[in-house]
Amino acid sequence: MREVTMNQERAILVTGVNGQVGFELMRTLQGLGRVVALDRKALDLSDLDRVRAVVREIKPAIIVNPAAYTAVDAAESDIDAAMRLNADVPRTLAQEAADSGAVLVHYSTDYVFDGTKSTPYAEDDRTNPQNVYGASKLAGERAIAESGCAYLVFRTSWVYGRRGKNFLLTMLRLGAERPELRVVADQIGAPTWSNTIATATAHVLAQGLASEDAKWWRERSGIYHLTAAGATSWHGFAQAIFDIAMGELAPKVLPISASEYPVPAKRPGNSRMSQEKLAERFGLCLPSWDDALRLCMGDMASGARQTDATLT
């Protein structure tokens, strides 16, 4: 293991840039260093030897890894692929970071918990994943901690954004097709905009880079919960989406229990996570989930209007 170093060029390697968080990180990290953003074509993360070679070639000061296997239900039958991307890749990146003195930033999930706690989860609460996806992400967390590198693991939840596959885009599509929707109301969490995650990450990294002190990274290495403030159910999330997007034209949203919507992978009933540690260590106050949702949908509407103006 080498001491944390920040070279003069200060390259920041970002994986998975076509994903929801990776796409936003390409924008929020500008100005902090030379951002090297790699998609699947540029870096096949299933090839661990190639991962090692690319890291050694770029020599990044910071590695930011939002890439993940996120198909929660598919993971139940695709265990090897989920473990490869969610555990083996973080382990490899962490080993390279430890050897080179780089800092690793990685993202995890509320699914490492079983969801039986009645209050928000803290970082040191007992983990007990209930599905393959959660187990694979927990394995990645542990591999990073065991590597000896300087690291920040941000656990987040219910991620949505303007691209990719997520609850927001699914609801907007279904809401335009159906007069009535049935949505789970007994699972609680914090919908978190991908831009919120990327922006908070940039704020944290800016603090570390400004310190120019390897000790800063070592003292703050660990797991942090990074979600929007507040909480709602999937039903409440859906209703808020339709209230903003469609108003009186919105479909009827009926609350149902999780047992009425069976899926291969069990989800936690309580996905709420405390942001106190994040606030104490970095002074960050993240927006409420509904305020962030309005900002995201406002951006989507603005983008659509600009596209329409360009086409006319």
Order of strands across the widest beta sheet? 2-1-3-4-5-10
What is the CATH superfamily label of the domain at 11-163 and 192-229 and 272-287? Answer: NAD(P)-binding Rossmann-like Domain
Mean pLDDT: 93
| Beta strand % | 15-25%
Helix content bin: 40-55%
Rg is 20 Å
Shape: globular
- Find the count of extended strands (DSSP E, 2+ residues): 12
CATH architecture classification name of the domain at 11-163 and 192-229 and 272-287: 3-Layer(aba) Sandwich
Major sheet size, sense and barrel closure: 6 strands, parallel
Which structural class should the secondary elements be placed in? alpha/beta
How are helices and strands ordered from N to C? EHEHEHEHEEHEEEHHEEHEHH
Annotation field: number of helices: 10
Instruction: Give the CATH class of the domain at 11-163 and 192-229 and 272-287.
Output: Alpha Beta
For the termini, the CA-CA separation is 58 Å
User: Which spans have pLDDT < 50 for at least 5 consecutive residues?
Assistant: 305-312
- The name of the CATH topology of the domain at 11-163 and 192-229 and 272-287 is Rossmann fold
Organism: Paraburkholderia panacisoli
Protein name: dTDP-4-dehydrorhamnose reductase
Catalytic activity: dTDP-beta-L-rhamnose + NADP(+) = dTDP-4-dehydro-beta-L-rhamnose + NADPH + H(+)
Domain RmlD-like substrate binding: 11-299
